[in-house]
Amino acid sequence: MPPPVQHPASDAYIYELAQKLWDYHHMHQPLRKADAILVLCSHDTRVAERAAQLFLEEWAPLLIFSGGLGVITRSMWSEPEADLFARIAIGRGVPTDRILIENQSTNTGENILFTKRLLAEKKLDPQTFIVVQKPYMERRSYATFRKVWPEKQLIVTSPQDPFAVYLSQYTNPELSPDDVISIMVGDLQRIRLYPEKGFQIPQAIPDDVWAAYEELVQAGYNRHLVVG
To answer: Which ranges carry the DUF218 domain (predicted)?
Structure first.
């Protein structure tokens, strides 16, 4: 694990800044029925639980898990994220014949692209998706999907937890609250940078959100920034 973050500000102030990023990352899109639920897997198994809940509530008839081993999980697990997430969903009562698994992707763009290829191989053509992701990855997932697969319709959702609850209860035990804040900071930087690289559609970032980002970077929450 990296050494603890050292910062001059109080924890309360750091959390206030992080809350601003958390709120921005949320899309707050209302659920509606769809053709498929697409789960962008990661280190956060609560996302699998949320996806299983949505399937069992009949928001969509097909559940797709996408994820191999990414930058964070390759040091935690040997099993692909999608396989682990699918087992969690099956344990919650989702029938195996309603699940598809894509377990080779290593980033958000590949999640979408490899899922697109998998569905084509299966001769399936869902038009509407509910994309399920970590709470602080909603906006970047939306922007990536819209870039990679613009002809499809989507809404994005995540585990429905307030920031303080998420930090204290639902993060991977190998990641501290400071780690999660650093990841959120890195995701905001990617929202700013990735449209120019062709990875995402542009998303406006309010000045106060970017100011909070800059303060967090200065405070040492910079371990997941894109370099160069």
So the answer is: 35-153
